[in-house]
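REQUEST FORM: STRUCTURE PREDICTION
Request ID: SP-0412
Submitted by: Lab K.M.
Chain count: 1
Length (residues): 130
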Amino acid sequence: EVQLVESGGGVVQAGGSLRLSCAVSGFAGDDFAIGWFRQAPGKQREGLACMRKKDGSTYYSDSVTGRFTMSADAARTTVFLEMNGLKPEDTAVYSCALHPETYNSGSFYRGLLLYGMKNWGKGTLVTVSS
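STATUS: Completed
RESULT:
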């Protein structure tokens, strides 16, 4: 059973930084896509960034490009989201997700950010105070 466990959320002042982590376990294959999403109260879920395990190729949504950076450990079974210049509107539950299919197409990963992935973590709350 695939498990995704996020950590690192908390309360931070506007302009500050946070680093979220997501540990992946239970996946039997050798390649997957993993991504970060968020959902603010009363808003739709938003895809932020995703990475392909096999080669580390990373894709970002326009809304966080330049402020958020996704990275991974050497095995790419723990991924991170470094968030800088946080704003009150970044307040949300941040979740990581995994998708078992992969393709050699950037459009596929951008599509995952739009439509979601198969397996989800429970999320971690990030609150940015003004």
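NOTES: The mean pLDDT is 96.
Reviewed by: T.R.
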